[in-house]
Structures are given as C-alpha cells and as structure tokens.
Design brief:
This protein is of the alpha+beta class and 725 residues long. The protein folds into five domains: 119 residues, no CATH class; 83 residues, no CATH class; 52 residues; 207 residues, no CATH class; 81 residues, no CATH class. 34% of the residues lie in helices and 13% in strands. It has 22 helices and 17 strands. The strands form four sheets. A six-stranded mixed beta sheet has the order 3-4-8-7-6-5, with helices on one face. Strand 12 and strand 13 form a beta hairpin. Helix 1 runs parallel beside helix 3, helix 6 packs across helix 9 and helix 14 packs antiparallel against helix 15. The N terminus and C terminus are likely disordered. GO terms for molecular function: zinc ion binding. This is Mutator-like transposase.
Amino acid sequence: MIMENDKSKMADLHLFKAIQRTPFSPLKIDNVEVIAGSSQQEDNIDYNPELIGVADDQHSISSGDTDHEQEKVDYVEKLNEMKRQREDPMTHCEGDTDIDDLYTPEDADVDLGVADIDDMSCELSDPPSEDGGLSTLECETDEENKPPPGKRRRGKGIQVQRIYFDESNMMDTSQLCKGMCFTDAGQFRKALKSYHIVKGRDYKYTRNKADRIKVKCSQDKVKCDFFIRASQVGSEKTFMVREMIAPHTCPSHRNCTRVDSTWLSERYEDDFWSDPNWKVEAFMARCLRETGTYISKSKAYRARRKATEKVLGNKEKQYKRIRDYLQTLIDTNPGTTAVVTTINRDVLGLAPRFSGLFICFSAQKEGFINGCRPFISIDGCFVKLTNGAQVLAASARDENNNMFPIAFAVGLMNAIPIVFPDSEHRYCKMHLLQNMGNKGWRGEKYKGFVDAAIYATTVWDYDKAMEDLKKLNLKAWEWLIAIGKEHFSRHAFSPKAKSDLVVNNLSEVFNKYILDARDKPIVTMVEHIRRKVMVRLSLKRQGGDAAQWEITPIVAGKLEMEKNHARYCWCYQSNLTTWEVHCLDRSFAVDISARTCACHKWQLTGIPCKHDVCALYKAGHTPEDYVADYFRKDAYMRTYTAVIYPVPDEHRWTKTDSPYIDPPKFDKHVGRPKKSRRRGPDEGPRVQGPARKTTSTCSNCRRDGHTCSNIKVSLTLSILRPIFI
C-alpha cells in the first residue's frame, strides 16, 4: 500500500503549476513509487517532475486516500488534455500568458525540487502596481523590458522581410536600392551592369571580392558622388545592398562600354528563342531603341552567335552524348534503327571521333513496307556547318505521289553500291544534262534529243531519239550509250515499282523540307527532322481518316486526263480481253486481263493510259477498277498507321556506359560562312521575291533569266535608242 500525506499532495500541486508554466517541455509519466515514511523522511523527499507518475496498479490503495487518488487522476487527465491542446494547432496558440514563461534561466536544472519551484513561482509573480496597472498608452520601454541578469529572452527577434531582385525585369532601375537582396554576387553584378546601361553611365570597382563589392563612378573629369556597397548576409550566398548613394551627377553618354556581346545575348535570349535567324540590322536597331546604345555589327554578330548557341546548343558538345540520344530513340520507339559510326584515334586515351549517323524509325519502316511502292529516292545535301558533312536522305512516294521519308543519315560515305547491289538504279535527268553541259554539249538541240530518249516508253521512240543525237554529235551519243539505257530511259525501266520518275524530285523536296535544320548542331538538327516527320505522319493519318475518296486525288486527276485523251481514240476488238486501239497515225494492242498496253505506260505506272481507257469503255468496264492497288485508300492508311512517339529532353536521356564521342574536325574559314548553294555554269542568277515566278528575257542577248541592266557586257546597237534634238 502506498501512503501519501499532505506534503506529497502539495508537491503534486506545485508540479502541476510548473507544468502549466512550461508548455514546451513534454511530460513523460511512468510507473514511479512514492515511498511513505516518517515525517522526518518525508521532509527530505526530493520530487523530480520527470519521474513523478501514477502508482502501479498492482499496489493497493487505502480507502481513506480515495479522494486524493481521484484528485490525482483528475490532474493527470488535465495534463493529458493540455498536451493534446499543445499538439493540436487549431486549439493551441503559442505565447498564451497562462502557460508561457517570459524568461528562462540560462543554467536551468531539469530536476527541480519543491523548494525551487516555490522560489520560482514567487520570483515570477507580478508585484502590485501603485497606480493600479499601466494604461494602454503607457507602454514600457525596451530598457524596462530587458531580462534580469542571468536570464535570456525565449522569443525570437523581429525579422525584417527580405525583398529579392526580380531578374525577369532587369531593365527596371528602381530595383537597385538600399536593402535589395540578390541570390549571389553574380546576379548583383548583372543588375549593376544593367542599371548603368539604362542610365548611360559607367562605373568601376574599388573592391570586387566574393563576399564584398564596392563600386563608384568611373568619371574622373566631373566629380560624381555615386557609391554602392554590397556584401553577403551572414554565411549565406545572398548579397544585400548595404549602402547606396545615387543617382549619378555626371553627364550621360551614348557609347556605354558595359554593353558587351555576353550581356546582349542574355538580354535578348528570349527573342532569339522565337527567331534564331534574327537579322543583325534589326537586332542593332532594337538595341539602340531600348538601351540608347549603338553597337557595332561585329558585336551584334558575336551576341547572336552566343545567343543561338544557348538556344540551339553547342555544335561540338552535342557529339559527346550522341550515343545516349540514340539509345533514347530506341527506347521510346521500339524497332527503330539508330547507328553511329566512329573513327578510332591513334593516340591512346583519346575518345573516338564521329564519322557517321543513320536513323530509321520503326514507323517509317512499317509505312514503307506495308503501303508504299518499292521505289526509293536517295540524294544528299550538305550540312551548313564547316565540317563538310552531308545529310543523306532516302525517300519514297506514297499512294498520292507525295514524299514519304524512310531514313536519313549524316556522314560522308556513299554506300549505295554496298546496300543496294542488285537493285535497279535510275539516274536523275537534271544531273545527266548537267554532266553533259560540263563536257561542252549544251544547247536546246542536245536537250531535246536527250529528253526524247529519256521519256521514250517504246523501243522505237528511243532508237529514233538516239539516232538524231548521233547525227548531231557522235561523242555525245557514245557517252550516253556508255551509261546504259536501263539507267535513264523509261522503256527500259522495270514495271515493278509502278513509277515512271526520271528526276530525283523526291530527294530535292526532302532537302527543302529540312532546310531550316541543316545549319543547326547535330542533335538539334536530328530532333528538328524527327519532329517534322512525326507531325507530317500525324497530319496525313488524320487526313486519310476523314477522306471520302477510294483512289488518291493525284492519281484520280491523272486518270481524268487520260479519259479526256481517250475521246480521240477508236478501238477494234480482237477477243474478249484483247483490243486494237488507234490514235492518230499509230496503233497499240491492249490486253485488259493482263493489264498491259503496247505503249508500256500502263505497266510502268499502274494507271490506265488513253489506249486502255478507250478499250475499257468499249468493253463496258470502269477504268477506276483497273488502277493498281498502290493508289487506293486502304494502302494509303497502311502507310500512315504507325506512329513516331515523342522523345524526352537531354536531362532524361538513357545513360549508356559507352565513352563520349569527339566531334569531327571543324574548319574555320575566313569571312562570313556561306550557306547558299553553288549554282552551275548553265544556271541563271538567283532571283528573290515574286520575280521568281516569272521569266525575264534580256534585250541584249535574248536569253532568259536576267535583264540587260544587271550584266557587265556592252550593249548591242539594236537596243540603243536615238536621241532627237
């Protein structure tokens, strides 16, 4: 049995008051025994607030102490209730006068006795006021509120809210003032530079350290009191303006030396994001209008180069993680082929050097195999950098005779004989004529005979054109015969591809399609091409879903032209499927079941020619039913069913264990980099604007492509007008 007397009850009361005054000290109540003894022993008992608790339930309590035990239980419940209120932010308010101490001893002892608690309670009790208390207007001063000796304040000091510099509004000079905070010293220096550029003044550093900066006016001829001092805030990187004497009292000037290419690139970076090819003249005018400072053209070029490097990326650094980028392409688009080739260096320890790149997305593979005709157009165009690389593109024709990109590569290797050893090779007519012109065989007669041989769909037409060329120039005829008719004449083409193309327009269309990307760094260029192809496939897919036609519009238009020409033909039936069709002074045999014509056009293109249409109408058939399956809607949808999926940015690329790749050698040439294509000797001058749609004829030499006002030869007498006096 535990016996308690009045002194133990008094200790509990003092303990409860002490706990009330200490709300931030949690009370832990464990099983603690209070030992009863004589009155002398009870006087010497020390009570520890952290060890006082409820007696163990296994001990018995006398019936005479039931009231006291109930009072103790009530105390404990009240303590628990206070603890719950302290933990609940909705009911507890820090700083309540009934539970918060004004001061706390510096060397406070946790184990306080009863006597110590009594002394503390007496010491903290308010003395009676003579005037009955202070009125609301008679506030105590700070001197009167100082803590007694040996004590400290518990409450935190008043913190002034900081105002940080808004870097997005850099040109606002009112931001640079006393008390303004900056994230670091670099931001403060940028703000200081922008302030003086707007004001048209200059400054110099009297102290320029990592933790302290002092600046004054750089003008020596006129006394100027401008001064600013800034330093770090404690151990933080934050910079604060401690002292500032402004504004400048010296005169302003137009040519501020603080306007450099780095500041210009950072100031107008957002504008270069919108237009990386921003004209230098417009850039200089914009800078003069906003800052009042004239910049030279060379400085404007340097600023644009730095800004575009931030926007588009560094052309040399992008080669390092190109393997990570290609692996990301494969992960996001399963089935994609992405290969990079390198050249090992002779020096040990050097990273391999970039050689070539090949990318073919799975959507392009599936579209070509499932829907397109087996016809590929391959050509290259130079990258507008200084390493001599080319973008080699492979394109096909979809069911509507539009361009369908299959794959592209970046490199210098011509791998067509290796990749396509057994395929039929066709040569572009334009390049064929250009090569003839380089050998000296130019003129309308040469062009006419070569065109007739190229467009001939029968052997008779081809032989006639070649005989005419032989009569004109024997060497030109021998040179063209040596090439081989299977490479340039339609009558010798295989009908498997269902295409009669003799020009490489598909590749030229793709080269024009990626023109904006060819002057960008390697990864930026590939990403630009990928996004354009991804959007193109999506738009074609949506257009095909909404289309109501069964035959593609381009092919349907060609068939309508053949129908109009068939009106002037007449035919004679040989049997159920064979017909003899006459057109002017020539006749051709048509087999409807075999879908062949003696003119070779139906086999070559897959579209019925005028002879076939005439026979089909006579036999009671519909020409649209005899169009090749390559030109129908279901084949069109198979071409654009697959999807190119998005690719994450550089921060989320798949990391590979392969070493970095060094960029190829970049040759820096003197002068401004040239991006325009070199025109051939037989090509006219480049014409800009709306005049490109018309043909100009020179009144001096009677040739097209120029006028007599932009040539340097002397004018003939025939165009000189006499002057009458």
